[in-house]
């Protein structure tokens, strides 16, 4: 059918420690909190710099930042299907947002937002599981956070109905 | 002119509002950052460390709790976002409800929507401004037509049931048998209704059933019934029935004319004797001296008690339920029969002084009948009704308490009658279904006596028989509004009302009802796979329909119309009156009516869009021609002459046949040239029928042979390796024997005024129809009026029995091809028609009920035996179809 088709990019911005600071260093956080608007303008700059006005003109009308969480740095970007390669390249070539350095990591590319959301859920689960594995904590190990996680999952499952 | 737009901030339009709403529904929640309050190193942290040089993958430090919390929040947010987006898309609040919970008023009244959806419904609702009430002028109020008058005006040519308005709002209504009856619910409910009858409960208002009351001496009533009812089964006066403990379900014939002139199935219920004395021997001897004066009273209204009650004669009352389409016929027949019997009594005892009287009264609008079918029916009744336990009715107490635990009414003895008195069910509205709680010693397999359902006349005792008690109850003493008013004065809202002295106590009857094939009980019967539907018939006085109805259906009982009732019969492979009773007058009316409707529909269609009956080889497309099938009449030639262009094989087939019928020279052996006749020569018996018709202009009409003995008789007919003549003698003697049992003259010695007098055994044999069930061997599903053909020996052998089907898939495919074929069998091999055919939900495949001549069925049995087949087979073909399919033929005794 004749429909407007989109692509949804699930991107995680990994904060990049500068030489003087560690990941959790206070100095990296003194600027204002990053919002989806900042991501949008940074992406715009990146596209203009790499693809010029043509590139930006082709994709600007369809580019939306659907979701950005400053706590987890996970971002969902929507772009028209025809131009999604430009957006993807623009995301990959981004280096900083608002003066802070990030490494963009595209986790998933999908045709519907639902698939992007589901990819975000699995990504989060995998990340937690990976840390767990790295810490050599078997799943049967019960620490104080397990209860918290348990209650979280219960809430989530209750929502799923 | 752009500047002309006013700068006033406008309210949002509907489109903008909707846009905003979807935007809100589609946003994904973001975890608010706690940068202000939290300590600075409390950061969730990235999922990966971006150390290019570092060998280790972990960041230097990580706040685990925050990290997990952030991830959990995000997972949660994604889930809710997905759910919100889905909920927002195209569904309105009421669309999320299952169909039976949707309410018409829910589009403007939020309170008609369940609480969980009320907020959503409120937001969606587009409330129009309240219109000012239309002013009704006060002056002409007296002249205006009252609502009751207006409704009565609509009932001039038909009768409404008491629950009519409830039904008319929810069901398709049709004029039938002088009533306006519900056909089927407006909502889609074919399959749910079947499920309800198998797993839940379904109610049908059967108040349209005609009720006749007969009062008189027991001996006279007995001889009336002995002349009119089925001669094969037990007598209507057998002790088990005449005690009033059970309803007798039988068939009504014209007086003395069994097996001809079947009228309809009837239910007969005797009023139990007041002080249940067993009928003693001296009672019987006393009846021989009964009086002579015959006086028959026939009134359409109520009857009062007869003053003269002979002391030595037991006066009994009997109720007789009958289908409304044959009410007049049965009523007249009963009156005639009663006068004949009374005359005989008078002749026998001319000296007796005491007169014996019989009263026959029409009680059509005096009682209401509800049929609740399904395994949950007992719980529904137990929950909705609140019986008044009278003293000395311990058996009823026991029975009522075990009713709550009854898993199926099928475990109660068939047709058990339970009589009791209940409080107004509106007092305890809303009802709650009883819950089944089975103790270990009270398992369902315990006997009827243990559960208290053993049919006795004391259990069947009810005041509903007494007209003096029924009379004042014709209208409920309190209106619903008055009861609601009383309820609103309850101190604790929601508690049921306490019954008071002035509240009505309604006498009623509860009768076990089973819709089942009579042979489904035996284990190796082919019908044992078909489920039976069990339930109860509730009989309540007139005027109380709408007091009982809401209580009975409040707990989710479905309501069915005529179609649902028919489906119940079809699913349990039992015949449904009148559609499965060929040869009865009610069936002829039914067939005429449906045939006419179909013909009208057919006539409206253009030639290309309607089946060409002639080409399809359909002899009578609108109504089954039983006379022709039986060989009692000649097939009518088609009016339309074939056009020139159809010169293919089918047309030539037909031309040949037309020629033959016109020449009236049906001796088959003389014409054996072309393919048609070759085909026909496979059916040696099929050629006989025409020869007989010519020389014998018989008055014999088709008759339906049914009853317990049919299977045995057919087996004996098929066993005797004899001619048709000896077979007809066997059945003639068989019928004579059952007539003799009821002291009726032999068939050929019957009085002149019967249309079957001087019937010969031959005519008797060849005009008999038998009902059959059809199970297809392969795919397919026969529809109503499908044509049944006989099969040649090779075809029978080719279509292997159904047992072979389910073993091997490949074999099955192969067999399916064999079991059906695209060719139209010759009209001469038609042996019957399907009366009801459909997809059977309980069997999971197509199934049909039909009728064939008895002679043909015997031929089929002989053929099956000769070929070593376990079951009889026949072809069945829909009228409008060119494919015939092989089907197994099962004999239905019922």
* Fraction in beta strands of chain A: 15-25%
Overall radius of gyration of chain A: 18 Å
User: What about the largest sheet of chain A?
Assistant: 5 strands, antiparallel
**Count of helical stretches of chain A:** 4
N- to C-terminal separation of chain A?
Answer: 33 Å
Q: Within the largest sheet of chain A, what's the order of strands?
A: 2-3-1-5-4
Oligomeric form of this entry? heterodimer
Mean pLDDT of chain B: 80
Shape of chain B: globular
The counted number of beta strands of chain B is 23
Care to give the gist of this entry?
The complex is a heterodimer of chains A (161) and B (894). Chain A is α+β, with helices and mostly antiparallel strands and 161 residues long.
Tell me what the structure shows.
The complex is a heterodimer of chains A (161) and B (894). Chain A is an alpha+beta fold and 161 residues long. Chain A has four helices and five strands, in the order E-H-E-E-H-E-E-H-H. Chain A has helices spanning 36-59, 84-92, 113-134, 144-160; strands at residues 6-15, 64-69, 74-80, 96-97, 100-110. A five-stranded antiparallel beta sheet of chain A has the order 2-3-1-5-4, sandwiched between helices. In chain A, helix 1 crosses helix 2 (84-92). Residues 20-28 of chain A have low confidence and may be disordered. Chain B has 894 residues and is an alpha+beta fold. In chain B, 32% of the residues lie in helices and 17% in strands. In chain B, strands 12-13-14-11-4-15 form a six-stranded mixed beta sheet, sandwiched between helices. In chain B, strands 6-7-9-5-10-8 form a six-stranded mixed beta sheet, covered by helices on one side. A six-stranded antiparallel β-barrel of chain B has the order 17-21-20-18-22-23. In chain B, a hairpin with a 4-residue loop joins strand 20 and strand 21. The longest helix of chain B has 25 residues, at 64-88. The radius of gyration of chain B is 35 Å and the shape is globular. The N and C termini of chain B lie far apart (87 Å). Classes of the chains: A alpha+beta (161), B alpha+beta (894). At the A-B interface, strand 1, strand 2, helix 3 and helix 4 of A face helix 2 of B.
């Amino acid at each position: 059918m004749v429909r407007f088709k989109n692509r949804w990019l699930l991107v995680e911005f990994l904060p990049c420690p500068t030489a003087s600071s560690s990941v959790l260093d206070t100095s990296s956080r003194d600027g204002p909190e990053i919002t989806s608007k900042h991501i949008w303008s940074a992406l715009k700059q990146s596209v203009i710099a790499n693809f010029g006005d043509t590139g930006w003109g082709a994709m600007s009308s369809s580019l939306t930042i659907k979701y950005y969480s400053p706590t987890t740095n996970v971002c969902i970007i929507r772009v028209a299907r025809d131009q999604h390669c430009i957006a993807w390249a623009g995301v990959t070539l981004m280096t900083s947002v608002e003066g802070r350095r990030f490494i963009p990591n595209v986790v998933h590319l999908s045709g519907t937002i639902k698939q992007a959301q589901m990819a975000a859920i699995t990504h989060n689960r995998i990340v937690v599981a990976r840390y767990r594995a790295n810490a050599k904590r078997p799943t049967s190990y019960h620490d104080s956070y397990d209860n918290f996680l348990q209650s979280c999952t219960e809430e989530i499952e209750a929502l799923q109905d | 002119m752009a500047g002309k737009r006013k700068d006033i901030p406008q309210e949002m339009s509907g489109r903008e509002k909707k846009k905003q709403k979807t935007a809100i529904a589609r946003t994904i929640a973001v975890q608010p950052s706690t940068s202000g309050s939290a300590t600075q190193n409390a950061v969730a942290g990235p999922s990966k460390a971006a150390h290019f040089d570092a060998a280790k993958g972990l960041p230097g430090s990580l706040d685990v709790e925050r990290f997990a919390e952030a991830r959990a929040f995000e997972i949660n947010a994604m889930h809710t976002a997905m759910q919100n987006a889905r909920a927002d898309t195209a569904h309105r609040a009421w669309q999320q409800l299952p169909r039976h919970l949707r309410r018409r008023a829910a589009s403007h009244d939020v309170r008609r929507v369940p609480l969980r959806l009320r907020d959503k419904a409120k937001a969606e609702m587009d409330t129009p401004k309240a219109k000012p009430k239309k002013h009704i002028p006060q002056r002409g109020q007296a002249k205006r037509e009252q609502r009751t008058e207006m409704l009565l005006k609509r009932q001039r040519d038909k009768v409404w049931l008491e629950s009519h308005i409830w039904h008319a709002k929810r069901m398709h209504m049709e004029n039938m048998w002088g009533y306006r009856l519900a056909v089927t619910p407006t909502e889609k409910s074919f399959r749910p209704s079947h499920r309800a009858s198998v797993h839940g409960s379904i109610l049908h208002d059967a108040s349209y059933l005609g009720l006749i009351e007969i009062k008189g001496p027991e001996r006279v009533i007995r001889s009336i019934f002995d002349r009119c009812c089925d001669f094969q089964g037990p007598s209507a006066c057998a002790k088990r029935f005449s005690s009033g403990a059970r309803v007798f379900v039988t068939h009504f014939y014209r007086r003395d004319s069994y097996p001809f002139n079947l009228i309809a199935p009837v239910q007969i219920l005797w009023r139990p004797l007041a002080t249940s004395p067993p009928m003693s021997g001296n009672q019987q001897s006393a009846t021989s001296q009964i009086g002579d004066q015959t006086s028959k009273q026939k009134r359409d209204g109520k009857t009062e008690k007869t003053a003269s009650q002979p002391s030595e004669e037991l006066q009994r009352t009997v109720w007789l339920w009958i289908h409304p389409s044959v009410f007049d016929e049965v009523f007249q027949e009963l009156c005639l029969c009663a006068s004949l019997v009374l005359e005989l009594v008078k002749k026998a005892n001319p000296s007796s002084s005491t007169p014996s009287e019989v009263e026959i009264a029409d009680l059509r609008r005096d009682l209401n009948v509800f049929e609740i079918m399904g395994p949950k029916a007992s719980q529904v009744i137990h929950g909705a009704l609140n019986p008044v336990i009278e003293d000395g009715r311990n058996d009823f107490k026991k029975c009522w308490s075990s009713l709550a635990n009854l898993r199926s009414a099928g475990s109660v003895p068939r047709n058990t009658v339970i009589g009791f008195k209940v409080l107004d069910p509106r007092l305890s509205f809303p009802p709650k279904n009883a819950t089944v709680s089975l103790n270990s010693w009270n398992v369902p397999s315990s006997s009827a006596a243990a559960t208290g359902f053993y049919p006795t006349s004391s259990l069947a005792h009810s005041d509903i028989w007494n007209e003096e008690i029924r009379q004042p109850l014709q209208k409920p003493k309190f209106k619903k509004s008055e009861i609601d008013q009383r309820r609103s004065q309850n101190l604790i809202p929601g508690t049921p009302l306490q019954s008071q002295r002035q509240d009505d106590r309604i006498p009623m009857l509860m009768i076990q009802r089973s819709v089942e094939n009579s042979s489904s009980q035996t284990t190796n019967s082919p019908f044992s796979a078909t489920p039976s539907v069990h339930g109860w018939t509730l009989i309540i006085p007139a005027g109380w329909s709408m007091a009982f109805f809401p209580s009975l259906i409040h707990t989710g009982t479905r309501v069915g119309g005529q179609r649902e009732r028919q489906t119940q019969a079809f699913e349990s492979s039992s015949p449904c009156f009148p559609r499965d009773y060929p040869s009865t007058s009610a069936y002829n009316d039914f067939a005429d009516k449906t045939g006419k409707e179909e013909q009208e529909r057919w006539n409206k269609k253009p030639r290309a869009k309607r089946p060409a009956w002639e080409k399809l080889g359909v002899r009578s497309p609108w109504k089954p021609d039983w006379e022709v099938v039986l060989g009692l009449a000649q097939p009518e030639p088609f009016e339309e002459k074939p056009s020139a262009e159809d010169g293919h094989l089918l047309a030539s087939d037909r031309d040949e046949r037309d020629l033959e019928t016109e020449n009236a020279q049906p001796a088959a052996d003389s014409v054996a040239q072309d393919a048609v006749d070759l085909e026909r020569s496979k059916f040696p018996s099929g050629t006989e029928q025409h020869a007989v018709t010519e020389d014998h202009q018989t008055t014999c009409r088709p008759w339906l042979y049914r009853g317990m003995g049919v299977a045995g008789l057919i087996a004996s007919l098929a066993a005797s390796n004899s001619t048709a003549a000896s077979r007809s003698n066997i059945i003639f003697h068989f019928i004579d024997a059952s007539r003799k049992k009821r002291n009726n003259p032999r068939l050929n010695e019957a009085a002149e005024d019967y249309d079957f007098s001087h019937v010969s055994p031959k005519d008797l044999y060849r005009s008999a129809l038998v009902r059959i069930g059809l199970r297809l061997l392969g795919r397919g599903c026969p529809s109503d009026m499908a044509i049944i053909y006989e099969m040649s020996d090779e075809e029978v052998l080719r279509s292997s029995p159904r047992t072979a089907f389910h073993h091997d898939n490949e074999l099955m495919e192969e067999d399916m091809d064999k079991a059906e074929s695209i060719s139209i069998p010759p009209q001469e091999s038609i042996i019957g028609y399907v009366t009801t055919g459909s997809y059977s939900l309980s069997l999971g495949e197509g199934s049909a009920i039909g009728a064939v001549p008895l002679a043909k069925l015997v031929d089929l049995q002989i053929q099956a035996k000769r070929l070593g087949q376990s079951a009889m087979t026949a072809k069945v073909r829909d009228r409008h179809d060119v494919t015939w399919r092989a089907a197994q033929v099962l004999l239905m005794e019922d």
